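Review form for a predicted model. The reviewer records the input and the model, then writes brief findings.
Reviewer: anonymous (R2)
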Amino acid sequence: MKYYTADSIRNVGIFGHAGEGKTTLAEAMLFNAGLLDRIGKVENGTTASDFDPEEIKRSCSINMSVLPIEWKDTKINFIDAPGGYDFYGDVASAMFLCDSAIIVVGAVSGPVVGAEKAMAMCHEQHKPHIMVINQMDRENANFEKVMADVNEKFGPSVVPIQLPIMQGSNFVGFVDIVNSVAYKFGSKGLEEIAVPGNLESEVQELYEKLTEAAAETDEALMEKFFEEMELPKEDFLYGLSKGVKEGSVTPVVCVSALNNTGVKTLADNIVHYLPSAAEVKLPEATNGEGTPIELTRDGKMVCHVAKTINDQFGKYSIVKVMRGTLDISVAPYNVNVEKAEKATAPVLMRGKKTVAVDKLNAGDIGALPKLQYTSTNDTLCDQSDIVKIKPIVFPAACISMAINAKKQGEDDKVISGLNRIREEDPTITIEKNIETGDVLLCGLGEKHLDVVCGKLKNKFNVEATLTEQRIPYRETIRAMAEAEGKHKKQTGGSGQFGVVNIRFEPADEGVDFEFVDAIVGGVVPREYIPAVEKGLREAMVHGVLAGYPMIGVKATLYFGKYHPVDSKEVAFKSAARLAYKAACVKASPALIEPIYAYNIWVPNDNVGDIIGDLNRRRGRMLGMNPVDGGTEISAEAPLAEMTKYATDLLAMTQARGHFESHFVRYEDVPGDKAKKIIEAAKIEDEDEE
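Model under review:
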């Protein structure tokens, strides 16, 4: 592959709902560019981009893949993105890498949620886009109905530049509306034919819509259009191209990726309509002092890591070159960790295959192998001119499950493997719950976490199991109680003796434990008082109801006794523990549970169902605010009722809803539920014994 400058590069993401044929479309592009001998099939696990064992097993894309091709003196870097929400971390990476997008919509299913999300992301991030109605070969394919649904959802700016020609249920050609010419698919390529009579009026109507859309992109064109009610062809093409690149016009084309019909014309339209890397605005950046700067393509090398791949051949960091030239002459300096990497030659990634190259110019996408310090979202640059790119915003983890090694003694291997996978996927987190002892794997959905376990097995030869996380309940007291703790031990020789009188009462809000020394007259010598506090802290790790940690307690040591010979620190620690157990059972102990705050974004049509569901989960509504495309619901709910909420919310909203949450406080568990939790804890203790 020859070297291309930014004006001859198109970075095009392929987005849409799962199952709409994105990967098959990319496969057809590779075949047409002469890079494949045949078009692979997703269900057979033979495509270039879906090569991960988990992707082959599930017949769907899980990871983003970069697939560069050469087409008519242009390099097109296709970025095939997953369609399922569980893998939207890679969608975020793909959206960062691309300068424009193809949004794939099924000719039978129409614009479902994946297309909605892709359109929203393109508008939010100002990415020009073409909509592709795919699967025109399928039975019940209905271009007209799909376009009606598209216009209802996305407005009239989404306009076909092609109309399919159907013979019965067969997709046999298309009308090029821009040039008012029709083509039939033939064995040797496209064959020009007359526009079918039944499509003439629709072609004329769509041409007029395109003309209006083109005129609206430029004030001079608008004036000319109002004067003459039409535009010269040159002005029409200029305005249409400008509208697409500005994102005010979304052209629609029709293809059958599976049959490779219409795909070559789509590649032509990509080159013609979508912006080159030289035409797009570069991301926000700062210099070495943290001052915002405006990047240009010229200057010393700057690139940003959008994705990390760890496989049996090593580690690859997929980068987009923002400025200058990336080659072996400069050792990349990692701005985020302030360390220089070894100079290494870049490669092109094409699925799992790599192609060695000498350099990558500004605007291009490639990979650097075996970087030691670099992770996803790091900026690499020439150390003599520090630049830091604004990081990619990845979706936050919203579901947690406990993860354990299937075989005893392999816990360390599981953690090591998870840390390697986390380099690839920033949307997963690993944390240790101190109260329960669970190692929690957090991600975007149950399928996401299941795939992580699959990767552990495939890449690191260690099996792990997932279970529901244990809720970190705690205990507290609601009343005041006093007790004496007495530890006396005599076994011959020096004994142990210590007596403490302690008052226990609820602490101030937000205080886990407060110890007050109220000893007067030296009834407990100064040197033993720290032992009393230490004994209490150790005892409070286990509550008196169900063994959960005790919090919100104020303990006042107000009296005690000692022996001048037998008293020791260990005696006073034991005495404090005895006083704790005796008093807290009398101080109205209560089981309390973590309460989380939730911000939930849902379509307006789902608001009633979501509120009803939250009420069933013992949730408390705090408010609602209108937002673009729906409603933001603010609520609080017990964590115990929300452990699978990510999965349930996606089901209730057809994957349109999402949420964020954070811990706010502890509250009493209702009596009937508390009774069940306490009984279960006692049974568990008996089983362990």
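Findings: The first strand starts at residue 9 and ends at 16.
Further findings: The CA atoms of residues 72 and 268 lie 8 Å apart.
Recommendation: see findings above.
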